[in-house]
Design a protein that fits this description.
Blueprint: H1 5-24, H2 44-50, H3 54-72, H4 76-98, H5 100-111, H6 117-124, E1 129-131, E2 134-136, H7 143-159, H8 167-175, H9 179-195, H10 209-225, H11 229-237, H12 239-259, H13 268-296, H14 304-329, H15 335-360
Antiparallel strand pairs: 1-2
Helix pairs in contact: 1-3, 1-13, 1-14, 1-15, 2-12, 3-10, 4-7, 7-10, 9-13, 11-13, 12-13, 14-15
Length: 365
Amino acid sequence: MERHYGMDWLRIGAFALLILYHIGMVFVPWSFHIKTAQPMDWVEIPMLLTNPWRLTLLFVVSGYASRALWSKSPSVRRFLGNRSSRLLIPLVFGMAVVVPPQTWVELVGKHGYGQSYLWFLTHDYFRFGKLDGIVMPTWNHLWFVVYLWVYTLALMLLMLIPGAGKLQAMFDRAFGGSRAVWVPVVFLLITQYWLFHRDEDTHELFNDGIAHLQYFPAFLFGFGLAGSRAVMDGLARWWAASAAVAIGCYAVIAGLLVAYPDFSFPTHNVTIVFRLAREIDTWVAIAALIGVAERFLNRDHRWRTTLAEATFPFYIIHQTVIVLVEFWVKPLGIGAAGEFAILVPATIAGCWAFYLVGRDVNVLR
């Protein structure tokens, strides 16, 4: 399988946006482990630029990357072993080492927990139960790794079905040409709006069915896309139209939030307009981004290899860095603007340090 540099850049960009989004979670009124002293409603508007599609895009690019690994594997067993070691070992390390500071900060800031971090880690975190309603140990932002591993298992079961070799041809027929844009939109409208009224993801593996109904097909789409010239050509051809629709949807979303801050929509009809714009935006934005990656970004650069390798370590550590830095700067009373000015470079520096150390220490690597 030929390497697609554009999809590499899209994966790098998707995780970069995720990190910036989680920095924004400190300042928006939505629930998070730690908040600035006075969260601001207007921050919802830039957050909603990526909110509808950011996670679905991550599963699409992860499915695409899984196809690349699959093409190099001699058997299903070897592929599962490779994916399990790449996902489960970092997951266990993350839950045991990286995530606990987030939980401690949340307990201290929101629940008045009075014990030191060392006490928390040695006496409370590994209780395999709840403390003030918080489950511990927990995976927090690493839920994505859990879902990705489960989706990989489900994918391999599909690949073992007799006649699975025909699935690629079926994918090409189902999503070739403009169907790569509008068929997923119809699917999302039916499953996420009409049949089920999607609210918030739980990130609990066994209690998140509606989210699975969106993320697992996105993962499968990415896997199929990696082997389909016809579907990639369709996305490249229709990228501009997809981008125009995505911009229009975001204009509706932003306009409604300007008129009705913090989702205070006055009527059910206004809520319907918001939800429809959000669901349509979810896929057309992704279709546009993949088309741009195919048309304009499919070229190598000397930084690509390093950034592609650093993406997963950045993802593992970034939220802990954000939470700890905000925990330290919030008592300074420098205001949201000052906190943001510190959070962005501090998070980038922390992620790079984590990656560079891990890269050079074999057991961490």
